[in-house]
Structures are given as structure tokens and as C-alpha cells.
Amino acid sequence: MSYQIELRHLKYFLAVAEHLHFRKAAESLFISQPGLSRQIKEMEESLGVQLFDRHNREVKLTHAGLYLKEALSKNLKNLEDILHHAKLLEDGKEGLLNFGYVGSAMQKIIPELLLKFTKNHPNIVFSLKEMDNNKQIEGLLAKTMDIGFVRLDKVPRGLEIEPILKEPFCLVLPKTHPVDASNFKTLLQCKADHFILFDPEYSASYYEKVMEIFDDHGFSPLVSHNTIHAGSIYKLVENGFGVSIVPKSLQTETNQNLKFIELNEIPQRTTLSLIWNKDNQNPILGKILAVIHKEILT
């Protein structure tokens, strides 16, 4: 018997290939296990290919099944994006762009970019999510994201990286701290303070650069808290739990309970970079990269 393979068959196959367990795959798809088994059998009969080896309760991919999983995982996302883009066009939208970013990019870079881009492309739908560097890498490789803003020195093969902002660091202090811009001479004045820093998971290379600052001043910091969110750092500093070091772009003038001292005299700088997947087929990606190169990086 011949069956017509539909998109649902491919999704069902990928679910079983991922879980290697029909019950768990069925639960993830919110369908019955017998129904899922029947759909996979239809797909195998239609292709004339055995996709899974089933022995008792153990499920394994055949060589053909493994190939199909790798090929579909890579290409099915492109197909879904194409179909979604067609729906956006029907709704009067030009397209969708998924952003990932570290918090400091939202202070100036991203708002400036969106203002410039939407002048000529007012019908773009933007999805913006703050996330750490590793999550952005995963999203770009999986093509669930189109563009990212990270603090990394290098990225995995398949991704492109371009520096967009190089900046100094700032010391963050509570307003009651005896050190301020008028009497600050060296970071050693804060040697006895606890430090609240971005977690190494935020960016290992960024964390190492901050540690270099302490190394150059001849002491190891008393790190009391790690976090991936600037807002958490500021709330802890504000309430007297310690001091911090952050990129200059995170400096804010709206919180009167904090003091910022720019560390311009030290050699360390931190770089905010733009990253994207060079195989991304989203037609909007090339347009926004063109705006970045023409109006942001010039």
C-alpha cells in the first residue's frame, strides 16, 4: 500500500528519532502511541525504507534512518521558516527576525539599529530575547535565531562573528561607598569589598578578562555572587552586598543609589560582537546586516 508523505510524518519521525522511544515521542507530540506507530509505519512503507530497528522495547535508527534524521533536522527548519514567511506576507508583514542578545546590547546598539532599520522596513516583526552567549550559539546553530549580540572572542564553525563595539569597563559602587570619582586612584581601594560579577557561563572569555583586571592589580577578588543579569547585579550592589565591574554600555544614570567610575586607565577592554549563521536563508537577515555595516559600523 502506498501513502502520501506529509509534513506531519516528518515531524513524527524526528520525534521518535530524538527520543528513540515511541511512548515518550507520542507524549511530546500529544498524540496516542498506536497512532504514532501507525504514522511511522505508513512513512516506512511509502519510502520503501526501514527507519527503525525494533527489538523488544529497544528502538534504534537504521543507517537510512540516521541519514534521514540528520538531513531533515538540517532542512526541515528551513521549510518551516519558508512557510511561516509566506504567512507573514499574507498578513501584510515583510518577515520575521529573531534576535538574541546580552543585556548591554539593549542599552543603545539594538534600539539604534531597530530605529534605523524600521525607517525603510516598517513591516518587520521582531522577536527579541535576552540570553547568555551559549544559548545564542545554540539558537543560531539550530536556526531558531537569526542574529545575536554576544561577548565572545570566537564562535563555532558555521557562524560568522564581527566586532561591533569595543569599550572600557566601569566600577559599580553603592552610593554610600567611601570611594567615588573624586578620590578613586586604583582598584586596590576596593580590595576588601565583595564583588558581584557576571557568571562565567555568561561568557568564559569575558569572565577571564575581568579576572585579568584583578590579576594586574595583584589581588584575587572576594566574589560573593554571580549572575547573568545586570539588573540583579545592580540590585545587589544597591543593597550593600558588594561592588561590581561591568561594561561601560551598562552604565545607567537613572538609579541614584549607584555610582559608576569608568576604568579608562586599565588596558582591558570588552567587545560586543554581532554573530549570525552564514547558512541562514531568512531574506531579512541580509537586509539588516547591510544596515549594520552601513550605519552602525561606520
UniProtKB/TrEMBL annotation:
SUPFAM superfamilies referenced in this protein's UniProt entry, alphabetically: Periplasmic binding protein-like II (SSF53850), Winged helix' DNA-binding domain (SSF46785)
Keyword terms of this UniProt record: DNA-binding, Transcription, Transcription regulation
Pfam families, sorted: HTH_1, LysR_substrate
Protein's UniProt keywords contain Transcription regulation: yes
InterPro entries: LysR_HTH_N, LysR_subst-bd, WH-like_DNA-bd_sf, WH_DNA-bd_sf
Domain HTH lysR-type: 5-62
Gene3D superfamilies (alphabetical): Periplasmic binding protein-like II, Winged helix-like DNA-binding domain superfamily/Winged helix DNA-binding domain
Family of this protein: Belongs to the LysR transcriptional regulatory family.
Protein's name according to its UniProt entry: LysR family transcriptional regulator
Naturally occurring in which organism (per UniProt): Mariniflexile gromovii
